[in-house]
Amino acid sequence: MSGGPFRSRRAAAMPESVFARMDAAKDAARRAGREVVDLSIGSSDLPPPEAALAALRDAAFDPATHGYALHAATRPLREAACAWYRERFGAVLDPEEEALTLIGAQEGFANLLLATADPGDAVLLPDPGYPSWAGAVAVAGLEAVPLPLEEGRGFLPDLEAVPAAAAARAKIVVLSYPNNPTAACADLDFFARAVAFAERHDLLLVHDFPYVDLAYDEADAPSALAAPGARERVVELYSFSKSYHLAGLRIGFALGAAPAIASLRTVKGAIDFNAWRGVQRAAVAALATPRAQVREGAATYRTRSRALVEALDEVGVPTDLPRASMYVWTRLPHGATDSVAWAVALAAETGVVVAPGVGFGARGEGWMRLALVRPEEELRRAARTIGAWSRTRSR
User: Is the domain 9-47+292-394 a CATH 3.30.360.10 member?
Assistant: First the structure.
């Protein structure tokens, strides 16, 4: 059935974005004169590496950067990404066959679906999960089969509970740890089981890995690509938005299974000419940032998460401390169940803006996500505002 005049069935199949509604709520609050405290979007407020900014500045005046950047021009970044991975996870990857630059991990995910699955195929998709995944699945004409992430399982999917018929229809299984929105973590044993599951059902395992550097404890977040057998059927997606606070540059890379990387390269070749060379140079410089400096971001988010969770607990919103990422995931207070209506009203009446849980999937209903993108005291004030407003609303 057509989506209507000048509207494709793909566009019509796109799920409604609650974040567009929250953007409207933010705008309405500002126009009403409220001071908006936006905790709905995970856009880092921390400074990028100075070397990356210097590389970007210098590239602007280098005529060699002013032309198209075809595949050969991306080799320095592909080599830097493979060197980074070798230092970080111990595996030697081929920058020609097992690496590809992306215009952000979100673009890479959408094009990877187009490159490796056909309309009507199924994708096993975490619920709750990153909202753009569902949109990319719809654009590709694929069937989304929810992988429930339950609190009692530490927000890890029970892959053995996937119905046999769904696994047979599927071409791809998607995972992402550290997780958005739940902030859950997975260990290498989990990824080994996930790769074994993918092998049994002949699936491509796509691991969206933007929070690789944002595990709070001393142990690094493990790479799914490091699990036994992973290089034959895992593609891992990386972003410079979170580790290096360069969200606006729209740059990332994919590493993993050579056949999938080749297919992704083919699809991207019909769509884009890669990121500007100056952005690529900034990314190469960012990857050379000392590990201790990169870890400062995780330390900041850990401190902020403690401040926010402590304040939420004090106002009667019991919340678990996250183990990673830049988010706090918690239930709506006082038994509220309509997360969109609750969040819109909160924004309108207080100026505090959170992400409604249902925006991340059906199993996110009744929850909210708060991004740790403000200083500690602002987060505490936001929590006190939420507590006072929700008590009034519940009467």
Answer: no
